[in-house]
């Protein structure tokens, strides 16, 4: 007990700490907000105390009322017990007053048996006529089904009378009279077939429940359910009979009257209610399967399933459910069956390997499905079991991430092979933009596939997956940045040490590379600002932080490129600077070549290098 209280106290303290942390986020809040928070918490405490006091008082009143009711009920039971004992005593005394009671009882039984025999004779005489009438009624109902010109209750009533008569007839004849039983079996032989035809028609009506509701034939649905309830009541009576629930009643004085009605042949339990629910399950599954197959066009159109299910359940709630008794909880049953059918189709569609786009479509659909069920029908996600795709959303997101990063890495790898080969060969001058800057358009191609994946993940509303995607892209960008820095260092070394072995134009291509890094930074910044603002606060900070790291990666390459340009410039000046303060310095004008060289380079940088560099 003490351990439980300690856990509760620890939980309360932890909750209090977390709430204070949310209310007092900054040190200044202790000065400016402490009094306000204290007043607010005091008001909340007063309200909670008042509510608790009211609830406790109400609980005490309810308990007091319950105790008083129990005492009064006990008194009523005692009075009923006393009255019944008085009735039993009077019955016993009354028998002693009648000197011929046994004879009178036998005469009464004989009279009832005579009446019952006469009733049986009349029913035997009318059985064939009644059978023919029911058969014709069933035929007419089938013929006029589309017009709805039939009455299930009337049909079931007369058929039930025939079944009840057969049950009583076979029950009487079953006592040491095999010949009579065989004769009756031959007489009632066609009744089983008629009952089968009726049940087939009954389930045909049940299978048309959507069409009947759409045509406003709710009266037929009510008749159907009345029949099912009548059979369910008979099933329960039969089960109670088998379990001996009526033993005490049969042993009472009233057993004589029951015996006079005669024994019955054991009735076959029909379980109509369960059969109806099984039929509805099959019906719902076939409707969902048909929509997915013919209307949704497989996995590509799975998002359309949401609207279909919402429309179907809305129709059920408005046109079908009102005809059912409340104890069926039929709308909940329909919700369960529709959801199970959707889950089954989703599992079938996702069997096997999935492409990245299909995975995102699934993830977006799962979110939209649960949101629509909650918004349109008030059904929370926890109510829908089992979960879609067995709750494998995180696993699917990871699979998509692996596929997307693999394609991005392949795309960028091919791009880098082309760009690095062009950078080393330098056969043509780099492309010049309208503003005179050297460019290669590599950043455009680089972000093309990245933007495609970011856009589709954003549309799928998967903020965490979006952040994970940018994180993985940063790993790829890190590798790309290292390749460029290594290549710059290698080409610079060749340019300085063995200039005759390298192609011309290293400075121009280095400026183009640096400019592309700035263009990449601009694109990353655009994604950070435009996409980041659409995310929740919990993911926005991480997303913007990851994009800032992306910008830093490109800026590091740009800095390496500018450092390479500086090294090349000073390498060209090295023969002159090595003569500083030497004899040549004092004899020749060496400063003018330095100025001209720097002027040429600076003019090129000003014309063709981004202003931020």
Q: Can I get a quick summary?
A:
The chain is mainly α and 613 residues long.
What level of helicity do the residues show? over 70%
- The number of distinct helices, counting runs of at least 4 residues, comes to 22
Could you give the distance between the termini?
71 Å
User: How many DSSP E strands?
Assistant: 2
What would the principal axes of the Cα set say about the shape? elongated
Rounded mean pLDDT is 79
Please indicate the percent range of residues in DSSP E strands (runs of 2 or more): under 5%
Q: Could you spell the SSE succession in H and E letters?
A: HHHHHHHHHHHHHHHHEEHHHHHH
- Report the C-alpha radius of gyration, rounded: 45 Å
Tell me about the biggest sheet?
2 strands, antiparallel
Spatial arrangement of strands, main beta sheet: 1-2
**Poorly predicted ranges (pLDDT <50, ≥5 residues)?**
1-7, 245-261
- Which class of secondary structure composition applies to the elements? mainly alpha
Explain this structure to me?
- The chain contains 22 helices and 2 strands.
- Helix 12 runs antiparallel to helix 13 (304-320).
- Strand 1 (431-432) and strand 2 (438-439) form a beta hairpin.
- The longest helix has 64 residues, at 34-97.
- 21% of the residues are buried.
- Helices cover 79% and strands 1% of the residues.
- Strands 1-2 form a two-stranded antiparallel sheet.
- It has helices at residues 2-23, 29-32, 34-97, 101-143, 152-173, 178-187, 189-207, 209-214, 218-242, 247-251, 255-261, 272-295, 304-320, 330-349, 356-377, 393-425, 442-459, 463-497, 506-532, 537-577, 583-587, 591-608, and strands at 431-432, 438-439.
- The chain has 613 residues and is mainly α.
């Amino acid at each position: 007990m003490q351990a439980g209280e300690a856990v509760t106290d620890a939980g309360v303290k932890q909750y209090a700490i977390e709430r204070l942390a949310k209310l007092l986020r900054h040190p200044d809040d202790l000065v400016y907000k402490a009094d306000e928070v204290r007043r607010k918490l005091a008001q909340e405490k007063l309200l909670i105390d008042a509510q608790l006091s009211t609830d406790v008082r109400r609980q005490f009143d309810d308990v007091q009322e319950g105790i008083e009711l129990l005492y009064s009920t006990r008194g009523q039971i005692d009075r009923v017990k006393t009255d019944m004992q008085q009735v039993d005593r009077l019955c016993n005394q009354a028998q002693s007053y009648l000197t011929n009671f046994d004879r009178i009882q036998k005469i009464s039984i004989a009279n009832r048996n005579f009446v019952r025999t006469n009733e049986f004779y009349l029913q035997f005489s009318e059985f064939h006529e009644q059978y023919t009438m029911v058969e014709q009624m069933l035929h007419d109902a089938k013929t006029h089904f589309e017009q709805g010109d039939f009455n299930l209750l009337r049909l079931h009533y007369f058929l039930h009378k025939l079944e009840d008569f057969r049950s009583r007839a076979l029950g009487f004849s079953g006592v040491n009279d095999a010949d009579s039983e065989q004769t009756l079996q031959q007489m009632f032989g066609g009744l089983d077939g008629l009952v089968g035809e009726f049940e087939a028609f009954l389930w045909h009506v049940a299978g048309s429940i959507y069409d009947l509701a759409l045509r406003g034939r709710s009266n037929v649905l009510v008749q159907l359910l009345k029949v099912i309830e009548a059979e369910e009541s008979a099933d329960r009576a039969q089960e109670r009979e088998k379990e001996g629930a009526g033993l005490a009643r049969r042993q009472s004085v009233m057993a004589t009257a029951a015996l006079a009605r005669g024994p019955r042949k054991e009735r076959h339990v029909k379980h109509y209610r369960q059969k109806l629910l099984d039929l509805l399950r099959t019906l719902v599954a076939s409707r969902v399967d048909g929509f997915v197959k013919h209307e949704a066009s497989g996995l590509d159109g799975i998002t359309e399933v949401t609207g279909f299910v919402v429309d179907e359940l809305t129709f059920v709630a408005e046109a079908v459910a009102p005809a059912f008794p409340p104890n069926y909880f039929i709308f909940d049953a329909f919700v369960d069956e529709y959801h199970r059918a959707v889950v089954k189709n989703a599992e079938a569609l996702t069997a096997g390997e999935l492409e990245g786009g299909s995975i995102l479509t699934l993830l977006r659909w799962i979110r939209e499905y649960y949101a629509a069920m909650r918004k349109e029908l008030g059904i929370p996600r926890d109510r829908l079991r089992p979960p879609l795709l067995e709750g494998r959303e995180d696993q699917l997101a990871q699979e998509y991430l692996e596929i997307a990063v693999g394609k991005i890495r392949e795309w960028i790898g091919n791009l880098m092979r082309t760009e690095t080969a062009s950078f080393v060969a330098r056969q043509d001058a780099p492309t010049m933009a309208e503003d005179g800057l050297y460019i290669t358009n590599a950043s455009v191609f680089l972000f093309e596939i990245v933007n495609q994946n970011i856009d589709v993940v954003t549309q799928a509303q998967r903020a965490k997956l979006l952040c994970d995607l940018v994180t993985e892209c940063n790993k790829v960008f890190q590798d790309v940045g290292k390749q460029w820095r290594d290549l710059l260092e290698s080409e610079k070394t060749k340019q300085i040490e063995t200039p005759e072995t390298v192609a011309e134009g290293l400075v121009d291509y280095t400026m183009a590379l640096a400019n592309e890094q700035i263009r990449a930074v601009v694109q990353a910044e655009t994604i950070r600002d435009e996409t980041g603002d659409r995310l929740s606060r919990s993911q926005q900070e991480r997303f913007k932080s990851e994009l800032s790291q992306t910008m830093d990666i490109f800026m590091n390459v740009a800095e390496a490129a500018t450092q390479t340009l500086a090294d090349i410039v000073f390498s060209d000046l090295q023969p002159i600077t090595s003569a500083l303060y030497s004899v040549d310095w004092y004899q020749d004008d060496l400063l003018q070549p330095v100025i001209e060289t720097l002027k040429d380079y600076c003019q090129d940088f000003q014309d063709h290098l981004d202003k931020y560099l």
